[in-house]
C-alpha cells in the first residue's frame, strides 16, 4: 500500500505538461543577442521570459534536450541564475560539438554548444546590450 507518499510536501507542484514558452522556443532557428534594430532576437527575448517564469530545475531538464536551441537556453538561464552554483553543469557541456547559429545584429556565425558554454562561463551576460548588463 502506497498511502500518502509525497503528498505532505509544502512545495508548490508545477506539472511538466504543456509549456507554451518551450513551444515558442522550439520554433526559434538561432541564438540571438539583444539587438532590436535587426529583428531576429527571439531567443534573447524568450530568455527573459524563461528567467521570470521558470526555475533552475526546469533549466537543468532543458540542458538534456536533443534540440540544441533548447539546450542553449537551459545553459544560458543556469549561467544567469547562478553561474557559480551551476558551474559544473555548464562545464560538462564545454566540449559539446553540436552546432547552432548565433545572430548578433547583422552578423550570423556558427558555433558549437561547447563554444557557447565557454562564453557563458567567462561572461553569463555576453548576449546583453552594453547598457543592460548587470553590474558585476
3D architecture notes:
The chain has 6 helices and 3 strands; from the N terminus they run αβααααββα. The N and C termini lie far apart (53 Å). It is mostly helical and 136 residues long. The chain has helices at residues 20-26, 42-53, 56-62, 68-82, 87-92, 113-122, and strands at residues 31-32, 99-104, 107-112. It has a 3-stranded mixed beta sheet. The longest helix has 15 residues, at 68-82. It is globular. The chain is 42% helix and 10% strand.
Q: What would you say about this model in short?
A:
It is built from six helices and three strands, in the order H-E-H-H-H-H-E-E-H. It has helices spanning 20-26, 42-53, 56-62, 68-82, 87-92, 113-122; strands at 31-32, 99-104, 107-112.
N-to-C span? 53 Å
Mean pLDDT score: 83
Derived structural class: mainly alpha
Q: How are the strands ordered across the major sheet?
A: 1-2-3
Q: Approximately how much beta-strand content do the residues carry?
A: 5-15%
Round the Cα radius of gyration to an integer and report it.
Answer: 16 Å
Encode the helix/strand succession as letters: HEHHHHEEH
Morphology: globular
Major β-sheet profile: 3 strands, mixed
Topology, number of strands: 3
Low-confidence stretches are 1-15
Please report the number of helical segments: 6
Helix content estimate: 40-55%
Amino acid at each position: 500500500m502506497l498511502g500518502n507518499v509525497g503528498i505532505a510536501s509544502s512545495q508548490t507542484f508545477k506539472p511538466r505538461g504543456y509549456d507554451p514558452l518551450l513551444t515558442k522556443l522550439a520554433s526559434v532557428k538561432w541564438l540571438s543577442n539583444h539587438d532590436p534594430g535587426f529583428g531576429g532576437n527571439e531567443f534573447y527575448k524568450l530568455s527573459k521570459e524563461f528567467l521570470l517564469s521558470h526555475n533552475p530545475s526546469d533549466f537543468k531538464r532543458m540542458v538534456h534536450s536533443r534540440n540544441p536551441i533548447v539546450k542553449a537556453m537551459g545553459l544560458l538561464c543556469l549561467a544567469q541564475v547562478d553561474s557559480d552554483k551551476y558551474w559544473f553543469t555548464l562545464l560538462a557541456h564545454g566540449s559539446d560539438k553540436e552546432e547552432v547559429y548565433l545572430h548578433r545584429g547583422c552578423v550570423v556565425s556558427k558555433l558549437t554548444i561547447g563554444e557557447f558554454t565557454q562564453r557563458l562561463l567567462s561572461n553569463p551576460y555576453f548576449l546583453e546590450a552594453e547598457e543592460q548588463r548587470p553590474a558585476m
